[in-house]
Design brief:
Shape: globular
Radius of gyration: 13 Å
Distance between the termini: 39 Å
Number of strands: 10
Strand content: over 45%
Order of helices and strands: EEEEEEEEEE
């Protein structure tokens, strides 16, 4: 089973920044689409951003567009999410996984982000 380990979360004031990392136990170079998700309290898990392996094209949810940047380093099997201008509504547990819901691996433990106003 693939293991995903997310890190980099924490407590930050509104307007601040965080950089999340996710290391996969498998080679992600062969995975066409990888993504970052989040789950806020009482809400469903949502796909925030995804990135393709070949041309590194990206796509973002409207709620984070222009503030978050997804990237991937296939050589180290690592995903990143740079989060700028954080808002209280970004408070959630963040996860990485395949971008295709039909091909999802087991979820990691996630990393918690708390944004204070």
């Amino acid at each position: 089973q693939v293991q995903l380990v997310e890190s980099g979360g924490g407590l930050v004031q509104a307007g601040g920044s965080l950089r999340l990392s996710c290391v996969a136990s498998t080679a992600i170079a062969r995975v066409v689409g990888m993504g970052w998700y989040r789950q806020a309290p009482g809400k469903q898990r949502e796909l925030l951003a995804h990135i393709t392996s070949n041309d590194r094209s990206t796509n973002y949810a409207d709620s984070v567009k222009g503030r978050f940047t997804i990237s991937r380093d296939n050589a180290s099997n690592t995903m990143y999410l740079q989060m700028n201008n954080l808002k209280p509504e970004d408070t959630a547990v963040y996860y990485c996984n395949r971008a295709d819901w039909n091909l999802i691996w087991n979820w990691g433990q996630g990393t918690r982000v708390t944004v204070s106003s």
